[in-house]
Hints:
It is a single chain. By secondary structure, the protein is mainly beta. It has one domain: CATH 2.40.50.140. 0% of the residues lie in helices and 53% in strands. A 5-stranded antiparallel β-sheet has the order 3-2-1-4-5, with no helix packed on it.
Amino acid sequence: xxxxxxxxxxxxxxxxxxxxxxxxxxxxxxxxxxxxxxxxxxxxxxxxxxxxxxxxxxxxxxxxxx
Length: 66
């Protein structure tokens, strides 16, 4: 999927992506594929979707794209 980062709290490592489908997907910094543990708000990204531990969909395998 594609989308963009709408929030990211670097101290907590938590953020949210708005997918091109209009839905919002939370993520943890450990899901950033390049291992940097940080991403800029507004960055265009690709990502996979998986069921998280709380039973809601979460973004995984997050990668930046131009």
